Amino acid sequence: MLIAGPLGASDVAQRATARARGSDRPTAIAIGRALLAEPPPAQLTQIRCEKAGPHRICGLVVSGVKFKRPLDRQAFLAEVRALIEGAFNHAELEEVDLWATVPLSARKGVVVSGDAAKPTAATVFAVTVPRTALAQLGRQLESGRDVYWDPAFADSLSKGIPQ
User: Fold this and answer.
1) CA–CA gap between residue 93 and residue 2 (Å, rounded)
2) Could you tell me the mean pLDDT of each successive run of 10 residues in the chain, 163 residues long?
3) Residue 10 DSSP class
4) Where are the alpha helices (DSSP H) in 8-150?
5) Which among 138, 136, 24, 42 has a CA at the least distance from the CA of 90?
6) CATH code 3.10.310 for 26-104+120-159
7) Which residues have a Cβ under 8 Å from the Cβ of 117 and sit 6 or more positions away?
8) Nearest CA to 127 among 111, 143, 112?
9) What residues does each domain of the chain span?
10) Using an 8 Å Cβ cutoff, are 12 and 36 in contact?
11) pTM for the predicted model, two decimal places
């Protein structure tokens, strides 16, 4: 099991920059620096910020595998909540979307890029949180309202994923 601790400032900056995407990369980098200062157990693989006029939205992608410590359903939801709240705390955003993905295997010879590409990852968890609903985030996650769970992923978390 990999134990994550605080990173040095240059490591955090480098990782945040490498994971930043979108039309508003400076905001993505700022959010990444804040969220990666204490690396979360669920590996944050991408921070995408888009800006259109006054509207700013952030998407966070976490890995649904390779947790830095075992996570059960409650611990995973606590991580989701911390990441979403952290993004809102470090930028003026209208909405934060978070999803977890897992890799899909592709047989030798399968096209994985271009117009005929087969998917290489599957979404196993997703939630959208407008700033106006941030105060209800805990209730939303606990109730499962407007939250997508892949049944197999949810089942694996209910058993606790050993990492």
Assistant:
1) 32
2) 55 91 96 90 93 94 87 92 96 96 82 75 94 94 92 85 49
3) H
4) 9-19, 25-36, 73-89, 137-143
5) 24
6) yes
7) 111
8) 143
9) 26-104+120-159
10) yes
11) 0.86
